[in-house]
UniProtKB/TrEMBL annotation:
Name by which UniProt lists this protein: AAA domain-containing protein
Keyword list, A-Z: Membrane, Transmembrane, Transmembrane helix
InterPro entries (alphabetical): P-loop_NTPase (IPR027417)
Stretches that traverse the bilayer: 16-42, 170-192
Organism of origin: Pseudoxanthomonas wuyuanensis
Length: 745
């Protein structure tokens, strides 16, 4: 049900009629007050008052006639006699008694007029004065008020201003004053409004204003002609602002689409929900920095009671999907936020302020991630992938130099060699993503589950399992539209082991295809790939391509991996040195850093946003960390080689500088020392076997060279061993190796 359509439609003309009525009322008041102060002869009330005093009005008309006669008499005598008269009176007046006007000649070419006692006191004219001056050149009289001056409503028209305004000019002037008054009042209300004043002081708060109140703010910004400056100060795109203004009046489907478009989510309607309103299913993009592939969006009807809505949400069957609930109005915010803050459910409330931020923020993805981080258990949306190859671009850090070696050159062959969980798969998937849509290179990723390379590739292409390699590559070429082929082949050890036993038939075919320029390859693996590429002289992939030995991640990338995903959730380390300590303790292994961060997230209490050193120490000693460090004891299919590997590791555990406690500094472990130990123990192991064992342990990132000797590549590696157990383990392994490989007599 869409209640937006059932609401009473708004009538914009009523609002504009109200605004016009208020403006006319303000203009009328301004006209009345302005004319009262500055043009009283135009003021309707004063004109009415004047009309009521009929006696004074009659005397005023008579005095104006007499004044005209007196000015004419003075002009005539000046023209006839050539000089200004010393005294002057109204011609033909001989009756004694009170006079309307008393005339004086203060100086030549001037007259002083005083209104007489025939005017009443209430009229405001008795005893007031006018001063007249005659210009002999222009033959024009100039009139000014004297002291005391008569009331402005009775001042003769030629005494008001030197250049008399018409009634229309006065009307326009007063209307202009009214407009200024209205604008000034609006400005005063605008700047005096604490809400507007707060937005001007902190413009970015505009992003968090409730969505339903944005149209009112927009009108106020429009009246003040400050919309553009306010949006610029708040870093809001005008197009986003216009879209947000129409959000509240849009239908549910349109609102769902608007919200989904902001985070690049694919939306579709979800049916058969026992909820009043609309439910949509979103498929989130891989660029989202959280481990969340899809969510549900619920837009409730606005005519439901908040308490009933919460009850319906609480009665939903428990599931694994996160539900984003869009608040229908401000009355729902508190109830929905309270429900969403309960860790027992997977609901997230987008309240009225959150909707505005979603639609107006320059990075809406950050808004979504922050919202999820505040209202859900962070372990539910953890951005850390601790198993398998990294598939999300936002979870891949570092390796920029290795990527540049592959991406910024002409296609070639590469051998990516390294131990498990060092990031080979993640790097290959990153290469595949970078080549996606490339105009000249078509890149395919293939992971081998066993030794059957051709069958696996044929299955990917939908061809019969016995299809020849040449035909498979031909089909890839056909599908690439003329682009050069780069085939990324992961987990090649079993394939290479089978090839070595069968005479390298398929590898020879791959080399031929590469030499013909039909396809290039990147092979990823561990010891079997290393042996085939470097130790087996007869192998077809010897000198087949550039070898890339994958080790630890760059230090800065490790720190970024520990800091940036947590920051997206609003979580930070309380000591800026802790991420660096974590990177060093993990030996710059990305998977160990991710595991430690995941373990720290699981220790967080509800609402906690700071990680401390104690939580870091617990994470580095967790079972998950110990499990990730294990697996080194069987690096080769040869049991004897694995036995030598374990003896070397136990021996280094006794000499490592990473051992806990003060202790005495032991001599570093060396290849020569190991051979001497074997000889002294009566063990007949040849030097090549020991050399390969050291190479294998380095390739697996268990050991690394330090000066003349070796130590653990990952300082945390030492945490697997108890000091009291290492000697016993070493003695037992030495005994087993001596029994299998005694010194010849």
């Amino acid at each position: 049900m869409n209640t937006a359509a059932s609401r009473t439609p708004r009538r914009p003309w009523l609002r504009w009629a109200l605004v016009a009525g208020i403006a006319c009322w303000v203009a009328a008041i301004a006209w009345f007050l302005g004319s009262l102060l500055f043009a009283p002869w135009l003021n309707p009330w004063l004109r009415w008052e004047t009309q009521r005093d009929g006696h004074s009005l009659m005397l005023l008309q008579q005095s104006r006639s007499e004044l005209a006669l007196i000015r004419q008499e003075a002009e005539d005598r000046w023209r006839a006699q050539g000089q200004w008269p010393a005294t002057i009176a109204l011609p033909g007046t001989t009756l004694p008694g009170p006079q309307l006007l008393h005339i004086e000649v203060p100086q030549p070419l001037a007259l002083a007029v005083r209104y007489g006692n025939r005017f009443s006191e209430a009229s405001g004219l008795r005893g007031t004065r006018l001063e007249l001056r005659f210009d002999p050149d222009t033959q024009i009289w100039a009139c000014t008020t004297g002291i005391p001056a008569p009331s402005s409503r009775f001042v003769p028209a030629d005494c008001r201003t030197a250049t008399q305004w018409s009634a229309l000019e006065w009307l326009l002037a007063l209307l202009a004053i009214a407009a200024v008054a209205v604008a000034g009042t609006a400005a005063a209300l605008f700047f005096a409004n604490p809400r507007i004043r707060g937005l001007r002081a902190k413009p970015r708060r505009l992003r968090r204003e409730p969505i339903a109140e944005l149209p009112q703010l927009d009108r106020q910004f429009g009246w003040m002609r400050c919309r553009q400056s306010m949006l610029a100060a708040a870093a809001i795109d005008p197009a986003d602002w216009r879209q947000a203004l129409g959000f509240a009046q849009a239908g549910s489907a349109v609102r769902a689409q608007m919200l989904a478009a902001r985070v690049a989510a694919e939306t579709s309607t979800s049916q058969h929900w026992p909820l009043p309103g609309m439910v949509c299913q979103w498929r989130l993009p891989l660029t989202l920095p959280v481990a969340l592939e899809r969510v549900l969006l619920y837009l409730p009807d606005a005519d439901i009671e908040p308490s009933l809505l919460v009850r319906l949400l609480r009665e939903l069957p428990s599931g694994q999907d996160v539900i984003l609930v869009v608040s229908p109005g401000a009355a729902f915010d508190n109830a929905l936020n309270g429900f969403a803050n309960d860790p027992a459910n997977l609901c997230v409330c987008i309240d009225q302020a959150g909707l505005s931020e979603w639609l107006l923020h320059p990075s809406p993805t950050q808004v979504l991630v922050s919202l999820l981080g505040r209202q859900l258990q962070v372990t539910r949306i953890s951005p850390y992938q601790t198993r398998g190859g990294i598939t999300r671009p936002t979870a891949f850090f570092g390796r920029e130099s290795l990527l540049a070696r592959v991406l910024n050159r002409e296609p070639g062959n590469y051998l990516l060699v390294g131990g498990r969980q060092l990031g080979k798969t993640s790097l290959m998937k990153a290469i595949e993503r970078r080549f996606a849509g490339h105009p000249h290179v078509q890149c395919h990723y293939l992971s081998l589950r066993d030794h059957r390379f051709s069958a696996r590739l044929a299955a990917e292409l939908g061809l019969p399992a016995d299809t020849a390699i040449d035909a498979l590559v031909e089909e890839l070429s056909r599908r690439s539209d003329g682009r050069r082929l780069l085939l990324l082949i992961d987990e090649t050890d079993l394939f290479l082991r089978a090839e070595a036993a069968g005479g390298y038939a398929q590898l020879s075919a791959l080399r031929s295809l590469s030499e013909e320029g039909r396809c290039h390859f990147m092979l990823a693996g561990f010891w079997d790939l290393y042996e085939a590429a470097t130790l087996d002289y007869a192998s077809p992939i010897r000198n087949f391509g550039e070898a890339i030995n994958l080790g630890g991640l760059e230090r800065d990338a490790c720190i970024a991996l520990a800091v940036e995903p947590l920051a997206q959730l609003g979580i930070h380390f309380n000591d800026p040195a802790l991420p660096g300590l974590l990177a060093e303790a993990c030996g710059h292994r990305a998977n160990l850093v991710a595991i430690a961060c995941q373990q720290m997230l699981e220790q967080l209490e509800r609402g906690q946003r700071l990680l401390d050193g104690l939580q870091l120490d617990r994470a580095m000693r967790s079972d998950a960390m110990l499990d990730a460090l294990a697996g080194w004891a069987r690096l080769s299919p040869d049991p004897n080689a694995c036995l030598v590997d374990r003896i070397i590791v136990y021996r280094i555990a006794q000499t490592s500088r990473h051992r806990p406690g003060p202790g005495t500094k032991a001599q570093p472990m060396t290849l020569a020392g190991t051979l001497a130990d074997f000889a002294g123990a009566g063990i007949g192991v040849d030097a090549e076997t020991v050399r390969r064992s050291f190479a294998r342990l380095q390739l697996a990132y268990v050991l690394r060279r330090e000066g003349e000797g070796y130590d653990f590549a990952v300082p945390l590696f030492i945490s697997q061993f108890q000091a009291c157990e290492v000697a016993a383990l070493l003695a037992r392994e030495m005994q087993t190796l001596r029994q299998a490989n005694p010194l010849p007599l």
